């Protein structure tokens, strides 16, 4: 798959714990999410969840995080999602990346086969914050408004 901007690519070391399954891969140039595969067959009854192995361990450079996101097609068609979406893979984590899948469909079971694409990994830079305690916060236009404070219509 040709890259849109190969100069922007970031090398990430990957160990395949299951050498028969592929590395994470982007379906199209410019995609944010690289697909992850299950190494096992999975059967999820309605409402059931399972921690599913991907057969991958990675070493992210410091200052990067990998987020495990659901795939929208599986979500729309079958109600498949991730309990802790997005899952957070820390830069120091060397264990196997796992996906906490859940079947949100009220009646249909979901069956996945070893090798199926179950989630997508988005690699991002992040800021490490220093939490500086103060007595009073600077004012802002929003203030403490939230949870629907601006309404649900077309606006003012
Ligand atoms: O969807 C996920 C979420 C996390 N992890 C791995 C990588 C991450 O670095 C580690 C810990 O995740 P998190 O911090 O979300 O879990 P925790 O419950 O806070 O556990 P811990 O106390 O180990 O941080 O588990 C995954 O493989 N998949
Ligand atoms: Mg944690």
Shape: globular
Task: State the end-to-end CA separation.
Answer: 46 Å
Which topology does CATH recognise? Deoxyuridine 5'-Triphosphate Nucleotidohydrolase, Chain A
- CATH level 1 name: Mainly Beta
**Low-pLDDT sequence parts:** none
The neighbouring-strand order within the major sheet is 2-11-6-8
Instruction: Let me know the largest β-sheet.
Output: 4 strands, antiparallel
What is the number of independent domains?
1
The CATH homology group name? Deoxyuridine triphosphatase (dUTPase)
Bound molecules: deoxyuridine-5'-triphosphate, magnesium ion
The Rg value, from CA coordinates, equals 19 Å
Beta-strand residue percentage? 25-35%
Share of residues in helices: under 10%
Instruction: List the secondary-structure elements in sequence, H or E.
Output: EEEEEEHEEEEE
Secondary-structure arrangement, i.e. CATH architecture: Distorted Sandwich
Number of helices: 1
Number of strands: 11
The whole-number mean of residue pLDDT values reads: 94
